[in-house]
Amino acid sequence: MQENLYNLAFERSILSSIVFEPSQFDELSVALRRDDFYLPAHQDIFKAMTLLLQKDQPIDEEFIKKELIKMKKFDESVMLEILSANPISNTKAYVDEIKDKSLKRHLLTLTTEIKRVTVEEELPSAEVIDIVEKKLYEITQDNQTSDFKDSPKMTFDTMEYIKEMKARGNNVLVGVDTGFHELNKMTTGFGKGDLVIVAARPAMGKTSFILNTVNSLITKGKGVAFFSLEMPAEQLMLRLLSIQTSIPLQKLRVGDMNDDQWSSLNGAIDKMNHAKLFVDDQGSININQLRSKLRKLKNQHPEIEIAVIDYLQIMQGVGSQDRHLQVSEISRGLKMLARELNMPIVALSQLNRGLESRNDKRPMLSDIRESGSIEQDADIILFVYRDDVYLYKEEKEREKAAKAEGKEFTPTYIEKEEEDAEIIIGKQRNGPTGHVKLVFQKKLTRFVDGVPRAVETVYENVDTRSANINIGNDSVSMPPL
Hints:
Elements: H1 8-20, H2 25-31, H3 40-54, H4 61-71, H5 76-84, H6 91-120, H7 125-143, H8 151-167, H9 181-187, E1 195-200, H10 206-218, E2 223-228, H11 233-245, H12 249-254, H13 259-272, E3 277-280, H14 287-300, E4 304-310, H15 323-341, E5 345-350, H16 371-377, E6 380-385, H17 387-404, E7 418-428, E8 432-441, E9 446-449, E10 458-459, E11 470-471, E12 474-475
Parallel strand pairs: 1-5, 1-6, 2-3, 2-4, 3-11, 4-5
Antiparallel strand pairs: 6-7, 7-8, 8-9, 8-10, 11-12
Helix pairs in contact: 1-5, 1-6, 3-4, 6-7, 10-11, 14-15, 15-16
């Protein structure tokens, strides 16, 4: 069994190769870590080599010996074994073997850790799963190595991409369809590996907005994963059915429909029974649990093209660190997961209420709660804004003040069934920022494309600063018709 966990001859050969050809260490120090070596003495020698590299000193027998003596780790017999080992030319094969055995040792250590937290500490199963998933993720990330891409490789890949885009003709859509023509023109869709933030104040309709995107995708047979931390899955389904059938949401909720509407609803449910929509409405989830669930789902259903989290600030942190550090870990984790799964992840986000004290209440990047890490990690940040929300609120406040003073109140705001809405592109790493005009149909909680108009856009450089409709493990059970 032990021979599967380490190979001392390989370790000696790698270290010997470095001693006899120190120029190799630059490359090998990127691929290998100290604890990839099994023998503690080999770990010490590799550490000494690393220290010499940092000091820009020769990595040879005498300097390694001097460094080890300073560390009080010099073992003459081990050094002689390394010097007598044959240097190798094909170090990659040896490195791969050492990394493979190192990974097995880490996994074996993890099994011991599982036993400790499960049996000895008697932790709850949910906490054990969280610990295991986090450790497993750390192990797999530490074991991954990647080399630079050279110019020929990059130019070849880029030309293949350009040819693919040319074959599409004049189609502006490159990524995942947003469901809105003008927004597609501005963004070319949500790109693979992108972290997209959709932010708004409460009642602006950020969930309704993203459900329009979801509906557009599933009606085209695309797969969607939806993590609903705030709303039960059945409520999401009611909203989707309202969007599809044009039946007011309130009528769907109470079943107050005429024969034509019932018929339309039956047709929509029949279509939704074949939709590739997967909803997790657990209500509380952390980044490790989400990562594990989405990886498993994507593996089982490769047709999933996008994942949605509603919403980011409800996600639980890992550990007891400060909330802004937890949010930073969450946003970074979502970005890395999007790249790993090669698909966009859309996370909804709340905005600070401070913006409501401004005359112009249109959101800015600094209005995002815990905005620093979110702004930095996001590839696209969209703000949902409807001026009528504030006009209506101000009207009600004036009415309340007039009644308190015993004065007669004359309404000036007329509530509309359709309101102008804006999608403000606050950040786009690879494209323009600007505004897109939409229309919000209140009774249907539905956004539709507005009248196209010229919009002022700002191009920025890459930003370095800133049914089986499965719900969880169950299928949707709709109320009897």
